[in-house]
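Could you help me review a protein record that somebody else here produced? Do not assume that whoever made the record got everything right. The record follows directly below this note.
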Amino acid sequence: MRWDVIIHSAAGILSLILGGLMILDLAPWARDAFSIMMIITFASAILISWWTSSWVRGHFLAMAPVLGIALGYMGISLGFDLAFGLLCLAFAHFIYRGFVQFQSLD
C-alpha cells in the first residue's frame, strides 16, 4: 500500500475519533486536533486525486468537511458539526463502496 493512502486513511480514521470527542465535548482540545486531521485528509485527497488522475466522488466527500472547519473558525457555531456530519457521510460512502466492490468479487 502506498504512503499517501496510509496517511489519508489514518487521518480520516483519527478524524472520526477526534470528531466524536469534539461533538460529545469530552476533550477541549479535540476541535483543533479534529481540524488538523481534516486538513491532512483534505490535502492527501487532493494529492491522491492529482497523482492518480482519479477525481472521484469519494475524494470530493473527503474534502468537503474542510468547508465546515472554515465556517467553524469564522464563528458559525454549526460549522464543526457540519464538518463532522460530512466526514460521517464520506465514511459511509467508503464503507458502501467497499461493500459493493466486495460483492462484485463473487
